[in-house]
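ARCHIVE CARD
Drawer: 12
Card no.: 0347
Subject: one protein chain, sequence and derived structure
Cross-reference: see card 0346
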Amino acid sequence: MIHYFSKRVADFCLYKNVIAAERYALYVYGTELLISSFISLLTLVIISIILGTFKESVLFFLAFVSLRKYTGGFHCKTYFKCNCMFIFTYLLCITALKTMTYFNLSRMILFGCFFMASMIIVSFAPIENVNKPILENKKMRIKVYSILVFFIHLLVYVVFDRFRISCGMIIPITDFIVAISMLLSFTTTEHNMEVN
């Protein structure tokens, strides 16, 4: 469905001479990404309004996207599965946050999440994907960016914690889930084929 609409948009742009024919496939792909991202974001906003977790959702989205951009991680094969996985990840983070809040669990668990995430990120970032290869000379720079973003998240969480702003607890949980996604990428067929 997303591919169909993306082709229609690219066809229209091609017909109106907005794009060159040799860039057609690129525009189809870019439009697919825009539509898929819009669907994910819209679904996230709707669920957050229903659950009353809008502030947490904004922080989840910012933390997830900013870190995942540099670390890489598990990739789904279709946009539908990707959107479902994104929403599942969000619901998992919100459930963990609500559980920790309800049972008044220690902040040490959150710092434990940060610690484990930091070990995974430092050890494995960036995760390369068959469809998104990383040039050898850029890997170290991307690793540094991923570590820098992670430490910015840590500082933001510390500020939120200092001022007792509880929605900030979503940040270490999200970073931990992004790190787990990195580990899950090692189980995929594409990654195994690439390593062997």
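Annotation on reverse: DSSP finds eight helices and no strands in the chain. Residues 74 and 185 are 4 Å apart (CA to CA).
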